[in-house]
Amino acid sequence: MTTPWRVLWTLAWRNLWRNHRRTLIMLAAIAIGVWAMIFLTAIMRGMVDDMVRGGIHTLPGHVQVHHPAYRDDPSVANRMPPPDPTLAAALAAPEVVAWSGRVKVPAIISSERDSRGVSLIGIDPVADDRLAGIAATIVEGRFLEGPADRGVLIGARLAERLETRLGKRVVVMSQDPDNDIADRGFRIVGIFRARLQGVEESLVYAGLETVQRMLRIDEELTEVAVLGDDYRDVDALYRDIAAAAGAQRETLPWYELDGYLGSMLRVMDGFVLVWIVIVFVALSFGLVNTLAMAVFERVREIGMMQALGMRPAAIVWQILLESLCLLGLGLLLGDLLAVLSLWAMQGGVDVSAVAAGMEMAGYGSMLYPSLQWRDLLTANVVVIVLGLLTSLLPAWRASRYAPIEALAKT
Predict the structure, then answer these.
(1) Does a cis peptide bond (omega within 30 degrees of 0) precede residue 60?
(2) What is d(CA 97, CA 187) in angstroms, rounded to the nearest whole number?
């Protein structure tokens, strides 16, 4: 091909604007399609991120260490000693944001009105607040003051079920390692409100040392929860903690601890690409039509250029460059619209009107769109690649005209 690239670019740009109305309509279609791809992807990302973060907050942590039999039988019988020096060193690594040793066992909580089955969780308030931010969820009363605090925290929904309130006494019963009843009276010192009402009904927090004394397990734990920097990148953290914990303990990342959340994240990653391809397939029909009409209108001109020495390959490149200009402008406008739209929603969208339905799916009452640069890049790359592939047919058709037949057309 001997035609200079500068000449091809000039011809492509001028030919693109011969029919302003058609070009502007196609630009609007591409821009709206790209906006829809990126905007809805960010909305879906935000919903999934919210659900995953909420699930990790409830677990809590990105990695957990248990006795090998604990997940099948979460009783105090399947406990483990506190972190040894090797595990403690791994927990002090820079990539560990926070960690906490906990005791979590099935229990029954009783008020003077009713009884409910719950999970009793003994926590170190300082460590657990860094891990799960429990103190920020307190709506009445106070947070636990230390591992030896004799008070208990319950959820607002559980307080309603038990017909009790702040300051009242409740009795919590569980089993000790000998399968004997272990019970203790607690005073409600705080009531928390969780994202999901199911959490409010099922979790009860007390001081770690208080629960250990109640269950008669000295300083032993049932789990060690570890929080890293990013829930999407926990493999390195998981490997380090697993190596330090050893084979005598079971170490699992969050996506294995909660298979539903892990599956949702994988489905979302696949959905993004499928969604982008589907939207562009619809746009491709308009793109092909625009380029085909541009070719049919210039049959004699194409024949003239061939008669003057332009090779078929140069004609193909000229049509492809027209397509590239059209796609580039459409992408620029679509990206700008999407970024501005999402920037305007960065404070979140209140969906409390449908909070009950959102909660059933694991979402909160506020929706925060999440724009990831890789989604933006994926959308742009897919549009450019598929757009150029779609343009090959009109370009090939233009290059196949015989000069004499093309010049004879009216």
Answers:
(1) yes
(2) 32
- Render pLDDT for 115-162 as a digit per residue (tens, 0 to 9): 999 999 999 999 999 988 889 899 999 999 999 999 999 999 999 999
| Rounded Cα gap, residues 263 and 231, in angstroms | 14
Q: CA–CA distance from 389 to each of 7, 121, 320, 323 (Å)?
A: 23, 58, 9, 10
The residues with which 192 forms a beta bridge, in sequence order, are: 138, 155
Is residue 128 packed enough to be buried (19+ CB in 10 Å), middle (13-18) or exposed (0-12)?
buried
- Contacts by residues 246-250 (CB-CB < 8 Å, ≥ 24 positions apart): 246/86, 246/87, 248/68, 249/65, 249/66, 249/67, 249/68, 249/80, 250/65, 250/66, 250/67, 250/68, 250/70, 250/71
The pTM (predicted TM-score) of the whole model is: 0.72
DSSP helix/strand/coil, 133: coil
Q: Which helix (H) or strand (E) holds 121?
A: strand 115-123
Residues 360-373 as b/e (b if ≥16 CB within 10 A, e otherwise) read: eebbbbbbbbbbee
What is the residue type of 324?
L
List pLDDT tens digits, range 255-308: 888 887 788 777 877 777 777 777 777 777 766 666 666 666 666 666 677 676
DSSP state of 81: P
